[in-house]
Amino acid sequence: MKASLTVILAFIKLTQLVSAAAIANPDVQISLNIDGDHVSVDKNDNEKKVEKSQLNSNRSLLDYMFGFLMDNEADMSIAENKNKKQALPLSDELSVLTMQDDYQVPDKDDLRDINGSSVLYRGGEFGGLVSFAHLPYANCYDPAAFDDEKFDIAVVGAPFDTGTSYRPGTRFGPTGIRMGSRRLAPAYSVYSGFNPYSNWAKIVDCGDPPVTPLDNRIALDQIYRAERAIRNHKTTGKSKQKAPKVFTLGGDHTITLPAVKAAYEKYGKISVIHFDSHLDTWNPYYFGGNITSYQAMNHGTYLHWAHEKGYLSDNCIHAAIRGPYPGPRDVQHDIDCGFDRILARDIDKIGADGIIKKIKERIGSTDAPVYITVDVDSMDPAFTPATGTVEPGGWSSRELLTVLDGLEGLNVVGGDVVEVSPPYDSAEITSLAAAQVADSIISLMVLKEQE
Ligand SMILES: *[C@@H]1O[C@H](CO)[C@@H](O)[C@H](O)[C@H]1NC(C)=O
Ligand SMILES: *[C@@H]1O[C@H](CO)[C@@H](O)[C@H](O)[C@H]1NC(C)=O
Ligand SMILES: *[C@@H]1O[C@H](CO)[C@@H](O)[C@H](O)[C@H]1NC(C)=O
């Protein structure tokens, strides 16, 4: 029964195809010639001028798009609708939907909007493979091309989630954030009139390096080698910066360790501005792993390790902190790691301006190399529910974006947005917020070098 139904359906499909082929005449097309006249061109390249009255005579949408048959008398009569079923006249209300008489749909070989070289119509959000904000894709991992493949800022994904202590799923974060970024470009900020993607900087998307889900030691090393390779590329030379700046799409927060290491190798000690509900400087022998050193490396301890390894300056700062401290000595250990703390509720007392001032004072100099890392749990779960360790009572996405934009002037050499777990998301709410965070931090990189 099922088999015979398939055969019947296939037969119907085939007859439809055959009859469609008999009706359409792809060999004849109306186009503009060199003098600007409308002509019909048959398969032997014979041109025939088309009178304007014929052109405007009740053409259907398909006639507009694909041309109509004009090969001989019989075809002319079809074009003039003599043998064709007449369309009902349009009411005035509906006539607003008809194309303007002099509008020329693109020629059938015109690919400008299809290949992205021109924008003829709205809809680019959906075109192409999904890169961050439709940035061009670059192969950033061929040592032979480090000199010739030049760019100023690179976006890279780190699909890693095996350092998380609660909700997994951030291995899908880079893809989720890229999906959330499709409406970012071309677009100008209503606050600053600024569009980072059509400014001086060449910004590319390096895709994601492979990251093994089976061994964190290997995975974090893969991310480190990718970040290092990206920073070894030459820049376009349009600013004084010597090496590309890198923005990473996480991944759970452990990925910040290899990213900061690669930045440290280029710039020396890095000042980290860390937006998060948790400190993440936890003493690994206390928090989540004092049995093996493998356990001791996770998304709550990577800043402890970054400090231990000497990558950090003593001017680091956290903001939006509110997650409970696992132990009474956490704050002292945090201070020992070089950090100050801004708590989530401080924004109610000193406002976004007060937060911005405090961060800038802590960093001290506009030359100091800064790395901004944003855990989306710095925002309230109302704005970013799909994350690893959710803590109520956080900042709104507007508050965080205001603070980020206020950091203009700092020398941001790297950044990331992490802990987006798309499997927990709804309506892309978390991915959209993360994409906007990335947009703000990339803007800081572009604005700094424009000074
Ligand atoms: C278009 O069709 C309408 C209604 O069928 C008819 O009145 C009108 O004359 C036609 N126009 C042309 C240019 O053929
Ligand atoms: C896009 O197609 C047009 C032809 O319609 C061609 O001239 C142009 O070079 C193409 N651009 C790219 C980037 O492929
Ligand atoms: C591990 O930490 C716990 C407290 O969190 C402590 O009770 C235990 O003695 C520690 N074990 C080792 C081997 O340090």
UniProtKB/TrEMBL annotation:
The UniProt record lists the keyword Metal-binding: yes
- What protein name applies here? DEBR0S5_11540g1_1
State the UniProt keywords alphabetically: Hydrolase, Metal-binding, Signal
State if Hydrolase is listed as a keyword.
Answer: yes
Q: Which GO terms describe its molecular function?
A: agmatinase activity; metal ion binding
> Span of the secretion signal?
1-20
User: Which domain of life does the UniProt lineage start with?
Assistant: Eukaryota
* Coiled-coil residue windows: none
Q: Which Pfam families match?
A: Arginase (PF00491)
The source organism is: Dekkera bruxellensis
Similarity section: Belongs to the arginase family.
Q: Biological process GO annotation list?
A: putrescine biosynthetic process from arginine, via agmatine
